[in-house]
Every structure is written in structure tokens, then in C-alpha cells.
């Protein structure tokens, strides 16, 4: 018998954690964070306690208590055991959005993570440019005696990271995890390297759509997945429905063309905002800027991600390299703000030390710019400025006649609405928008609308359906004759 336990991702958007059990084989599909579950208890100013975070998440019902699954440095520190052998054989990762992968950082490093090459690169970008621990575990709560004989807390220097077991699969090619055969199929979404899965078990075949759409740059991939489902005699499909109540979608190509028009009509600086790791959206602005005779100015995290992709055998041709002739890399002020200081007083070495190790390479790229370059020649640039780096506007000082293109999702809760008002204050302060002239909103979702999801359901032709990643399962029930709605932590047997 095959069973699926839904530890997240049902009656909710995100937080997917589906435990599949078959003849003693246990695999998770995704291990993501639920914004809804965390939002019930935490906020920007209150998070799970670092020293007790795993226990906090257990107590609040945010993570399932499964012996032998979690990092022993956390479990032993918190009195939660940790010497048990793991019974989890693998995690299948659909993609590297946090609502699908965030809690991987709590897992034991010997549990294999199966993912696409692009997802691995994105997780590496998270790790190298921040404090995440997707590809390697940096043990906490370790101490040692230093040269003085004193007790010191271990760091990554004294206690090197433990690499996770990352297994990169070939998209479209079947592989096996004990009794379960897995077919990963690439689909279109708002981040590279996204895969849906078809699982062949002892009790039948199961498909998991993950997150998908037909209005991006890889719509053909999604169509091939639907066709593969139709050929697989599916017993069950786990079908997303984030935007199932919507009836239409703009396309990624619409973003490109509308942005091109706005850029052409803007006399001074064009500022844009979009998800930092959405490389398809970066491509839309790259092409729009290029067609309008401007450079796209990207930030250091995007430059680092493009560097990772350009160095990959499988992903090198997907996106421009960071030194592309139509791209400029923005170097912001560092911690000491030495970028515009007299290097007769401050050495070049001090300037380099003002930036993190992963950033320093880009200081020597021929296509770097700083705020002075942009301020002097505003007509030449489309300037990427994330919601977390709006302070750069203080240095750039957009000229009258500048515009802002916002290519991010609409706020869906009060906290996000308040944040968006704060962001508007920045652009209003610098005259880019006004109460009479708002920003240009040009965004498309990473999720299919109702027409698209119905096409997936019809084409997959599965015997049974369970809605996931949605708060509107009434549409699935309208379009499929055999729908089962499950609750969090509930088990469904095939």
C-alpha cells in the first residue's frame, strides 16, 4: 500500500511537505515554509529563537515531529534525541522557492536531496550570498579550546561545513529510490529549474504538479508534462491551484513589450523591481532595455547567480553572463562606504575588505558601475533596485522625468500592504511617483490561471485528484469528478 501524509501545502498557498511511503520507502516531495503558518506566530520583529528554533517550530505545529529526520546539532542541544537512524530515504525538490525548500536547512545532511541543476545553483546562491544552509550544514552549539586554553564557540573556520548529499537528476529521465520510480518533468514557473514529478509506486502512479503555468518562456515544458501525465494512467494527481479563481493571464512576453514601451517613453532613469532570483523576469527587462538602447543594471546577488549559471555545463546558455555587453553590475556603498573615498587615505585593500568575499570578484569586472555613473548618465540605464535596497536612491537621486516599473506580486496581507506604502514613500520622496502618478505595475504570476489549471486536469486524466497549494478547491471539484480534500498532517492511502 502507498500512502501520502500532507504535512503542509493543503488549504494553504505554499509550505509543501508531502511524505510518500511505499513498501518501506519514505520520501518527501518538497520541505518548504508556510508563510501562513509562520505568520500566525511570527513577524519581521519576532522569529523562532535561534537556540531553540526547531523546538519552537515543533511546538507551534509548523514542522512535523519525525524522529531521525533533523540535524543532530539542533536536536541534541534541545533535548530532542538525535541518535536515531533516519527512516527518510530522500527529499524530491520541485524547485528552490522558500515555500518549497526553506526547511531543508533543518534536515540531516545524510538525507539525499534530489533536484535539478538550476535548483542546486539557486540554493548555492542563497548559501554563498547569505546565511542559508541548503547545500552544507554549519554545525551550531559546538565549542573548542582556543590557543589560550579558553572555551570558544566554534565557527565555520574552526568547524568546517558538512556538505549535504545533493543528487542532481536529469530532467525527463526516470530514476529509482528503492521501490519508487521517479520521473522529473520540467515545467514553466517564475524561477528556473522547476520540475513536476510522476511517481510510479507499488499501488499506482502519482503526479505532483508543483508550481506551474503556461504564460512564461517555457510553456512547452508544461505542455509536455501534461502529455506525459495523460500517457501514465495516473491513479492520483496532486494539483496546484494558486490562481485557480482567475480567468486570464498576461505573459512574460507582455512584460517585455510593455516595459519596452515605458522605457522608450521615459526621458531619464528607469528603475525596476522584480524578484531577485526570477531570471526569466530579468530576461524580460534585459531584452526590454536592450531593445531601447539602454543597459540593464543588476545587483551583486543577480551577478553572482548569472555567474553560477554561466559556469554550469547544463545551464550556461539559458541566460546572459554577468559580463554581457548589455549588462552593468551595480556596486553599492560598502559597510565603510569607501567606494568614493580618497584611496590615498584608504588603501585598495581596505576597499576590497569593505565587501563580502563573494562580492569582491565583481569589483574588477569591466562593466561595473556605481551611483556616480548612474547619476551622471541616467538616460542610459534601466536600474534594478530591490525593496531591500531603496537606500541606493539617496545616492543615485533620480532626475525629474524618471519612472519606476514594479514587477512584483500584489500584497496579500496587511503586513505587505504596509510595506508597499513604505516603498511608495521612497519613490514619492524622490519624485519618481506622486499621488497623481503612481508606479507602473507590470507583473505576471508564476502560477497558472483557472483556464490553464483546468487544461492540466483534463489532460492528465487522473482517476483521483487532491488539491494542493490553494485556498479554492471548489474549482478542482467543479472540473474533476473524484476530488478529495485533505487537512494538514492527514494521511491518504492510494
Radius of gyration: 24 Å
Biggest sheet descriptor? 7 strands, mixed
Structural class: alpha/beta
Write down the overall mean pLDDT. Answer: 93
- β-strand amount: 15-25%
Please state the second-level CATH architecture of the largest domain. Answer: 4-Layer Sandwich
Number of domains: 2
Q: CATH fold name of the largest domain, please?
A: Metallo-beta-lactamase, Chain A
Large-scale geometry: globular
CATH class of the largest domain: Alpha Beta
Low-confidence stretches: none
Q: In what order do the strands lie side by side in the largest sheet?
A: 10-5-4-3-2-1-24
Number of DSSP strand runs: 24
Number of helices: 16
End-to-end Cα distance, whole Å, is: 7 Å
Helix content: 25-40%
For CATH, the homologous superfamily of the largest domain is named as Ribonuclease Z/Hydroxyacylglutathione hydrolase-like
